Amino acid sequence: MKSATMSATHALRDKWFVSFLPLLTADMVNTDYKGNWQLAAQERTQKLDWITSVEELWSTMNSLPKVHQLGMGSTLIFARNNKEPPSYEAYPNGSRIMINLLKPPTTDAGLELVLAVVMGETAAEKASDGKPVCDVLRIAARPSREHSEQIRVEVWLSDSTRSHAVAEFLAEAMRAKGLAANSYNIAEASFDAAAPGKDKKVLAASTMPSPSSPPMVKD
Q: For residues 101 and 179, is the Cβ–Cβ distance under 8 A?
């Protein structure tokens, strides 16, 4: 029988490892790493901690500065089972979904929603037949002249055939959350650096009346 402490903890399906990558500049990479960006990222990444439960996720997020305060170019990385390396080369059949959260309160509410549905596996249940294809989350400040607190959340998928379904699910979750249509946008993209515009699709943002969001964990 589980103890009261264990029963009060909502375990995630898989463990996730969170790390922090400070800004890398071309001068730094060329001088210190002979132009090897992957090596620079590996050596500069600061490993933080494992996240195994819902409670640990929110405790970790509450202990960190707001994303827009981390500095331009700095990135928080959540990797399922600490899959190495957390770079696109590890996903030859993968793709990414880019979610730009333009301004408060969407920056907070949208980020919480994406963390919840991805790490809580609602996205897997609703968009990929229960298969956990969303393996990495990358969260970074992307301020602009119009939106000084803009952040970007990238969801990296190991299976690009599920990309559209996951992107559609995330767009629907944003609408169901009641987030303002002009406060975010979602786009799909491949990891093909040679053709950055290839297979890229922007999903229009719109709102729906329901204020609720998909549950983080399934009872």
A: no
| Cα–Cα distance list, 67 to 42, 50, 139, 152 (Å) | 21, 19, 7, 9
53/205 Cα distance (integer angstroms)? 30
Q: Does the pLDDT of residue 188 top 60, yes or no? A: yes
Q: From the options 3.40.50.10490, 3.30.760.10, 3.90.1210.10, 3.30.230.70, give the CATH code of 18-203.
A: 3.30.760.10
Q: Is it true that the peptide bond before 105 is cis, omega within 30 degrees of 0?
A: yes
Q: How many CB atoms lie within 10 A of CB 210?
A: 10
Residue spans of the domains in the chain: they are: 18-203
DSSP conformation class of 34: T
Helix, strand or coil, per DSSP, at residue 136: strand
Alpha carbons 181 and 207: distance in angstroms, whole number: 6
61-78 pLDDT tens trace:
999 988 988 888 899 999
Which ranges in the chain belong to alpha helices (H)? 4-7, 26-32, 37-44, 54-63, 106-119, 122-127, 163-177
| pLDDT recorded at residue 211 | 32
On whether the CB atoms of residues 171 and 203 are closer than 8 A, the answer is yes
